[in-house]
Structures are given as C-alpha cells and as structure tokens.
Amino acid sequence: MKSTKIFVIILIILILIAGTLFAMKIFGQNENQIANANGETIENKKEEQEVAKPKTLAGDSRPIAIMIDNHIDAMPQAGLLEADIVYEIIVEGGETRLMLILQDKDLDKVGPIRSARHYFLDYALENDAIYVHYGSSPQALSDIDTLDVDAINGINYSEEDFWRVSDKYAPHNAVTSTEKILKIAADKGYRTTTDNDTVLNYVVEEVNLENGKTANTVTIPYSYANTVKYEYDADKKEYIRYSRDEKQVDWDSGETITTKNIIIEKAKNTTLNDSSEKGRQTLDNIKELDGYYITNGKAIPITCTKTSRAGNTVYKDLEGNEINVNDGKTFIQICPTDSEIEFE
Description:
Structural class: alpha+beta
CATH architecture of the largest domain: 3-Layer(bba) Sandwich
Order of helices and strands: HEEEHEHEEEHEEEEEEEEEEEEEEEE
Radius of gyration: 29 Å
CATH superfamily of the largest domain: YerB-like
Largest sheet: 11 strands, mixed
Number of helices: 4
Number of strands: 23
Shape: globular
Low-confidence stretches: 30-36
Helix content: 10-25%
C-alpha cells in the first residue's frame, strides 16, 4: 500500500514536470511566433515606408539647372521630357525662356541651351542646383559672381562639351549632355551632393483638390508672342503642354511633353533701364505673389512667398497651409501680372 502511494506520487510529479515542459515549449513557440509576427510587421512597415517616399528630386545628388531656348525656331527641345521641374519666365521681346531642374538624369542631348538671365538664378539657387547656360546678360554675369553661383557657361568650352547641331540654326542649336556637364562640374570642384529640402512638398498619396475650380484646360498668355496652354488627360491624370498652339514634344523621340502639376505665379516684369537697349527684363519676385496650384483637373488659389534670392519659395493655400504637391513633374509658370489666365 505504501509502495503504491509512493508510485502514485512519483507519477503525479512526472506528469506535472511533463506538463510544465510542454507548456514551456508551447509558450516558447508562441513567443517566437509573436516575435516573428512583430518582426515581419516591423519589416513590412519599413518596406511600406521605403516604397511610400516621393521619387521626385529624391536622394542627395545635386540637381542641374539648364537654361533652355523656347523660341519657335528652337522647338522641339530635348530635356523637357525628363525634367523634374521646369520654370518658364518671360524675357525680352515677349519671348519666354525655360529652365530645367534635373536630378540623376543621363541624357545624351539637352537643349537648345541659351544665355543666362539674372532672375532665373533665384530659382537655381533655391533648388541648390549647378547653373548651366550658353552666354549671359551683363546682369546675370555680375550676379553669378556676386552670389557665388556654381555656374557653367557653355560658350567658354570646346565643341566637344557644347556643340551646335545642323538641324537647327544659331543661336537656337547649342546642346550638351548631362555627362559633359557633370564632368565639367567635377573639374571645377563643384559640390555634387545636396542636403537641401526640396522646394515643393511632394507627397505620395494622391492630391485631389476637391474644392478647387475645374481646370481641364488652362491657358496662360505671356505676351503677344507666346501663349501656353495645358489640356488635361483624365485617363493618364496628367496635362499635355502646348506653346503657341503647338503641342510640345521631345526633340528626338517625338514623345508628348506632359506634366503632373502646374504652379502659376504672377510677378511684375519691367524693362531694364540699361545701356544695352535690348529690352531685357527684370522681375519683382522677392515678395508674396498670387498664384494657383493645378493638378488632376482642378485648381486652387495659392500664395507664393520668396523672402530672399536663395531662399525657398513657400507655396500655401489661402488658409495658410503649405500645399502638398503630387509626386511627379511640375511646370512652374511665372507669368506677368496682367496675364489673363483662363480655366475651363
């Protein structure tokens, strides 16, 4: 009887030990599963965050700003298709000139490249870009020196670096490549990385201006010589660009030039009172300007505030909030204050 009790006690102890070991094993597995699940969740969140970052002007490569001819004899141009931002501002004779902002692009041909104008420097500086031009106005040449702009003047280089093509005539036919630009920049000791914030507040989540006015067609008259128009392609959710009633296309591929975003700024331009008598312009842009942000077929009024030549322009809605901008290409149209902009 005594031996039976001892046997039962030993059996109970063994059962308890076995149960404890089994419970520990199950708990350990569950703990590992929880750890794995948490790890996977963290990893998934990390991957989602990486995917969710805007791609426009991402990374630390320093952008390049390139002056592009927009005369009718210069069209079509090379580089508009790949640009991250394109600025368009009026110059002498009622013409406009373009400035491309490019980052991490490998282009065999960019152009036609034209001469510098001093107020374009303000936008090269705020993008922390290396400024590329072919010739210069006296005001721009002086400001490049005064403002210590990292600039490359193609007129000072050989035809191996900047060359003229035969299918257009001078002065509308000077071109270069991004490879040549970067090589010259390296030779000049220019910084090739940047830690500046992007001028535009790009976001991945689609921006739809629900309370905006309809903007399926946007018309921006710069002068008697040039009217810019955009037509919205609802299927592709982008705008097709026209200049002088002509659809703009890429020089070599013939691909249509489109953009995700359009920003309009209205700035007063006046003729410089200098001895050149060439009608060159200046721009009253270091202040708060009225404008519009346009995307996905809608437009809202905004303010565009620039407090210094090198300072970033800050774009806000009329409630004072900095606007979110759809990830993608943006044309920034800095047009005369009397430009009668039309939305349809």
